């Protein structure tokens, strides 16, 4: 039994996409009787589709609503008084079958052109028969030229729709060609994953109608012979003159003449004229950018318009992707209906004329990349600062551009400090985020060194984290970041000393003998209590803390972790081991960082050896044990404390902290032991 199930599974997997879609339609229609298929019909048209499960539930084709109808599956017919379609169509020759399957016009023209005896007689043929609507849609001029010379033009046209062997849908492999019965000229077959089969870009409507002398497939167009390659189409079309020049300059002619199955999205002269002359000249004068531009207009496989019934992503020869879709009768590229003429068939693919140029990122300057993305306000800032030349030339750089939301309250004023800060948003060399590693050092045009931090859910450069996939241009790369970057300006102790909010903390660190630790190279995260935090402590507790060097050092170490954690890395609860030994719990709530459930007053104050968070409370270890009172601070420690407090006029003026300083300074006269 397992072997049987495996064999059945392999058989099902071997079915062609068309057969899989047909099977799905059978399943949807089986409640209406045997051999009933459910089809989706575009409202207001006669266009019908067998669809897969996804389209069935979406009830849309090319964005337009459909209705479900039920009809006999190919090869079956109704019987009066019985449910469904229980009877197989009578097996007859190809000529008779044409009249039964909805191609009576093809049957009529077969009679007029004297093809009838051949398709009534013995043999094994396949005919791709245009539907009645397909013949009716031909221009009067084309139809007149065919029917006015039935023995030559019409006969040749019909024989081009024929193959001298039996070919079923499972034999119609994607990208293959069949030799027609007119001068063995090729017929191009494409069998797409969504189940659509095209014959010279005409959609197969009703397939696999068996006849005694072959098989009939009904298609939605009258197909014509093609003998030109894609390159020859470019050379003969007046509207592609600029493209012709560009192809010649890029040496792509040989590719577009070679065997294969490509889709060329051919930009017209009008498309080139829409591009600013400076941009166009830059690309045309740069062989690599020009080749990328043209390759971005070439898809790796032939894509006929009839095969596109929903949006899909396709890869170009340049390596990027395009969103190919449709809206009603129009094809769209990246959501825009810019295809002017579709399905111009070539021997090595298909050409769609487009009236807008598709410039890939790889042919753009960093400035152009930024202007077209969610960092467009940053480009205004760099332009106002006179830094555009770094972003528009051939200099290899990476731009760290804050997203527009950073400037929701307006752009900052450009002065010398802001210009220097912006220079530090431009990194020397063209980088790719996927090659960045934790601890990597980056040099900026402002001669600063920036650090890379790699976290589980984020990639950050100093305090700024990358907010979107990077865009790689011709010479530069764009990193969109979530905030203005703050380059480090000194060690942790340097930063604390320079900020009057931390004068009490600085004195405490010096008193506890931790200054050297926070000055040395390292990777610290410091949750720095402000003067306000110390002021908020009960007087007795504050006196006890500042008077006990051992306990003070223990508490201060609880505020320091030996790894750098910037705020952008905190998306869930993060636990850090403090230098005291206990865990610190860092979390994000309402876009505010919390440490041990206490809100942080300011985040991401960057130092060369760490990052500082300002907190308005002194943190206490959760499982702290009563500690023995240590000796009083030694004279050297008290000397440091004295110097720090003397420098901090703010702290001395504070009515809560002044008595504490006075008490400690008075004890300097006593002869105390060290800690």
UniProtKB/TrEMBL annotation:
InterPro entries: Adhesion/Biosynth-related, EMI_domain, FAS1_dom_sf, FAS1_domain, TGFBI/POSTN
Keywords carried by this UniProt record: Cell adhesion, Disulfide bond, Extracellular matrix, Gamma-carboxyglutamic acid, Phosphoprotein, Repeat, Secreted, Signal
Subcellular location, record wording: Secreted, Extracellular space, Extracellular matrix
Pfam families: Fasciclin
Gene Ontology CC: one annotated term: extracellular space
Subunit comment: Binds to type I, II, and IV collagens.
Record protein name field: Transforming growth factor-beta-induced protein ig-h3
Organism of derivation: Loxia leucoptera (White-winged crossbill)
């Amino acid at each position: 039994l397992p072997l049987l199930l495996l064999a059945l599974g392999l058989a099902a997997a071997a079915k062609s996409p068309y057969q899989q879609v047909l099977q799905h339609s059978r399943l949807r229609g089986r409640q209406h009787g045997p051999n009933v298929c459910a089809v989706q019909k575009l409202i207001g048209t006669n266009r019908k589709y067998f669809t897969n499960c996804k389209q069935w539930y979406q009830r849309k084709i090319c964005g337009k609503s459909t209705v479900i109808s039920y009809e006999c599956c190919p090869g079956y017919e109704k019987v009066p008084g019985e449910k469904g379609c229980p009877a197989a169509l009578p097996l007859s020759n190809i000529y008779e079958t044409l009249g039964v399957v909805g191609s009576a016009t093809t049957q009529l023209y077969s009679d007029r052109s004297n093809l009838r005896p051949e398709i009534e007689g013995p043999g094994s043929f396949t005919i791709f028969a245009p539907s009645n609507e397909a013949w009716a849609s031909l221009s009067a001029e084309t139809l007149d030229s065919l029917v006015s010379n039935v023995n030559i033009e019409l006969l040749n046209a019909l024989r081009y729709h024929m193959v001298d062997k039996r070919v079923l849908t499972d034999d119609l492999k994607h990208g293959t060609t069949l030799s027609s019965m007119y001068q063995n000229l090729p017929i191009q077959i494409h069998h797409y994953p969504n189940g659509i089969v095209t014959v010279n870009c005409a959609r197969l409507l009703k397939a696999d109608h068996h006849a005694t002398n072959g098989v009939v497939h009904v298609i939605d167009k009258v197909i014509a012979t093609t003998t030109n390659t894609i390159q020859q189409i470019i050379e003969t079309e007046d509207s592609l003159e600029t493209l012709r020049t560009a192809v010649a300059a890029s040496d792509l002619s040989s590719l577009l003449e070679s065997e294969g199955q490509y889709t060329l999205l051919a930009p017209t002269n009008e498309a080139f004229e829409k591009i600013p002359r400076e941009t166009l000249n830059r690309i045309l004068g740069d062989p690599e950018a020009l080749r990328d531009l043209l390759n971005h207009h070439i898809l790796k496989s032939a894509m006929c318009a009839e095969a596109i019934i929903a949006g899909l992503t396709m890869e170009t020869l340049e390596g990027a992707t395009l969103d190919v879709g449709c809206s009603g009768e129009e094809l769209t590229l990246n959501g825009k209906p810019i295809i002017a003429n579709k399905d111009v068939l070539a021997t090595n693919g298909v050409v769609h004329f487009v009236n807008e140029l598709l410039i890939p990122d790889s042919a753009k300057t960093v400035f152009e990349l930024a202007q077209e993305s969610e960092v467009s306000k940053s480009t205004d800032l760099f332009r106002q600062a006179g830094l555009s030349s770094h972003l528009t030339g051939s200099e290899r750089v990476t731009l760290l551009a804050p997203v527009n939301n950073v400037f929701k309250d307006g752009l900052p004023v450009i002065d010398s400090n802001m210009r220097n800060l912006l220079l530090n948003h431009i990194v020397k060399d063209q980088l790719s985020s996927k090659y960045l590693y934790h601890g990597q050092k980056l040099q900026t045009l402002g001669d600063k060194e920036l650090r890379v931090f790699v976290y589980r859910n984020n990639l950050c450069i100093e305090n700024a984290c990358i907010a979107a996939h990077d865009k790689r241009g011709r010479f530069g790369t764009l990193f969109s970041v979530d905030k203005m970057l703050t380059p480090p300006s000194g060690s942790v102790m340097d930063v604390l000393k320079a900020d009057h909010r931390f004068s009490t903390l600085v004195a405490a660190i010096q008193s506890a003998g931790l200054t050297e630790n926070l000055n040395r190279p390292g990777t610290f995260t410091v949750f720095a209590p402000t003067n306000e935090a110390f002021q908020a402590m009960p007087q007795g507790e504050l006196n006890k803390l500042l008077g006990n060097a051992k306990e003070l050092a223990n508490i201060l170490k609880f505020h320091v972790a030996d790894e750098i954690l910037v705020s952008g890395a905190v998306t869930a609860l993060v636990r850090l081991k403090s230098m005291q030994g206990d865990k610190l719990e860092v979390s994000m709530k309402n876009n505010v960082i919390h440490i041990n459930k206490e809100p942080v007053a300011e985040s991401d104050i960057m130092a060369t050896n760490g990052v500082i968070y300002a907190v308005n409370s002194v943190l206490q270890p959760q499982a702290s044990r009563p500690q023995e009172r240590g000796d009083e601070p030694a004279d050297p420690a008290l000397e440091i404390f004295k110097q720090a407090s003397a420098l901090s006029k703010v702290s001395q003026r504070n009515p809560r902290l002044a008595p504490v300083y006075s008490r400690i300074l008075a004890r300097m006269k006593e002869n105390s032991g060290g800690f």
